[in-house]
């Protein structure tokens, strides 16, 4: 572990600073919109714009990196993200903010792709799993710390935006100063979502619903807490505990999923998520409710919500052939991003039409829908024996999913083969 850490320490440090700044901006904007009394529907559209940018960056970011070179592309995207942050501070208007969020999402997706490929080059087949675990921890630590940085300065002032831009710019230093040249990035393999669904319905639907859940909460959660009357510090605590819960839960839940049918584990995780959401809804309706019980429930929710995506990916990997693993992981990530783009919009509509606490009823409904679908699929396909399952790998959508680092994508000779040539030809679905 120490040897793996030494080989990628500078890259992980740069990634941590990058995530720190991006996380701060992600909580700063909804709080600012809440202070300005912007309607939840408009705020949801602004927050969903970031995820549309992520979709575009995940589709085309690597092509740009391959065309202009790794280091220059990284510097350009970091500069673009910093400039977008400073433009937020120049004037307050939802339409420009939405466009800037698209730009930010595109740049961040490309930056994470660059770091991912660099970490992959620095890792051997033996250390790739350790590097991935370190990357996940860095992502959660940076994201949770970024929630609390919102307490630095008035959200109406320039200082918080300047701090975000500073962090995004400083993240360049440890990355571009690395002594190893940037890796070559080839074209990303693709696997159609239709074929991917035929291979693993639970995998695709699970990733989409996971995106809806996380997008709805992280897009609208700060506005929800603010509208309940919480101070800025309490809002940051509310959001930060959710991230910390996600970090704590992944490994024990992952161990359980390696020993039992992953769908059974996912089913109970979803029930826990729905129960925590319904309880949170009930507490939010009570006046003067102490913050501690809500934080306990939101921590449980965060752990469950963060586990759905890696469980869905792990289940899909159990049925995907080795040569198609990387292409399938990219398709699952795209499924999650599409769900995340819809999450803030759906959450804002529910909050605007009913009440702010109804956000958690929406999330509970999404979790119960997926639980019902998982239970249905359990009746349609016999579970694989635990010894035939691939190992659970903790992944985080905070910094996207580092698919190239996923040790499950390693072929015996260390190379990733192209996707199956019968893509789109109606390959026979598995039972």
Structural description of this entry:
The chain has 431 residues and is mainly α. 73% of the residues lie in helices and 0% in strands. The chain is built from 14 helices and no strands. The chain has helices at 2-35, 40-68, 70-90, 94-122, 128-148, 159-170, 172-176, 193-199, 201-227, 232-259, 262-284, 291-317, 325-353, 358-378. Helix 9 runs antiparallel to helix 14 (358-378) and helix 11 packs antiparallel against helix 14. The chain is globular and about 55 Å long. 56% of the residues are buried. Mean pLDDT is 84; it is low at 411-431.
The first-to-last residue Cα distance is 40 Å
* Count of individual helical segments: 14
Q: Characterize the overall form.
A: globular
The proportion of residues in beta strands is under 5%
Query: Which segments are poorly predicted (pLDDT under 50) over 5 or more consecutive residues?
Result: 411-431
The computed structural class is mainly alpha
Helix content estimate: over 70%
As a whole number of angstroms, the C-alpha radius of gyration is 21 Å
Largest sheet: none
Quote the average pLDDT.
Answer: 84
Number of strands: 0
From N to C, what is the helix and strand string? HHHHHHHHHHHHHH
Oligomeric assembly: single chain
Question: Main traits of this protein?
Answer:
431 residues; 14 helices
What is shown here, in short?
The protein has 431 residues and is mostly helical.
């Amino acid at each position: 572990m120490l040897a793996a850490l030494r080989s990628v320490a500078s890259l992980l440090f740069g990634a941590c600073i990058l995530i720190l700044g991006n996380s701060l901006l992600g909580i700063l904007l909804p709080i600012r919109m809440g202070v300005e009394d912007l309607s939840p529907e408009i705020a949801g559209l602004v927050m969903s714009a970031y995820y549309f940018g992520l979709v575009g960056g995940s589709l085309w970011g690597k092509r740009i990196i391959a065309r202009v070179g790794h280091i220059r592309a990284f510097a350009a995207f970091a500069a673009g993200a910093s400039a977008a942050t400073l433009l937020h501070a120049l004037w307050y208007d939802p339409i420009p903010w939405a466009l800037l969020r698209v730009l930010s999402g595109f740049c961040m997706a490309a930056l994470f792709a660059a770091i991912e490929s660099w970490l992959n080059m620095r890792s051997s087949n033996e250390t790739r799993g350790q590097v991935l675990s370190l990357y996940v921890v860095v992502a959660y630590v940076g994201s949770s710390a970024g929630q609390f940085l919102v307490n630095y300065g008035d959200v109406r002032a320039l200082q918080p935006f300047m701090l975000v831009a500073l962090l995004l710019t400083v993240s360049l230093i440890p990355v571009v100063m690395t002594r190893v040249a940037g890796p070559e990035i080839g074209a990303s393999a693709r696997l159609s979502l239709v074929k991917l669904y035929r291979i693993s319905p639970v995998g695709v639907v699970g990733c989409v619903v996971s995106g809806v859940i996380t997008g709805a909460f992280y897009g609208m959660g700060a506005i929800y807490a603010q509208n309940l009357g919480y101070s800025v510090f309490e809002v940051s605590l509310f959001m930060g505990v959710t991230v910390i819960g996600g970090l704590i839960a992944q490994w024990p839940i992952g161990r359980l999923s390696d020993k039992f049918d992953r769908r059974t584990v996912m089913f109970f995780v979803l029930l826990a998520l729905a129960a925590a959401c319904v309880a949170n809804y009930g507490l939010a309706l009570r006046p003067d409710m102490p913050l501690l019980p809500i934080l306990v429930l939101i921590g449980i929710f965060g752990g469950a919500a963060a586990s759905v995506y890696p469980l869905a990916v792990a289940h899909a990997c159990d049925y995907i052939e080795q040569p198609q693993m990387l292409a399938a992981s990219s398709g699952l990530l795209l499924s999650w991003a599409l769900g995340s783009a819809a999450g803030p919009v759906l959450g804002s509509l529910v909050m605007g039409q009913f009440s702010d606490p109804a956000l958690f009823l929406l999330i509970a409904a999404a979790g119960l829908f997926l639980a019902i679908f998982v239970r249905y699929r359990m009746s349609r396909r016999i579970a694989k024996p635990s010894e035939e399952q691939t190992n659970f790998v903790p992944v985080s959508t905070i910094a996207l999913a580092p698919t190239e680092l996923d040790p499950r994508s390693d072929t015996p000779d260390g190379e990733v083969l192209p996707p199956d040539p019968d893509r789109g030809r109606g390959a026979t679905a598995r039972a």
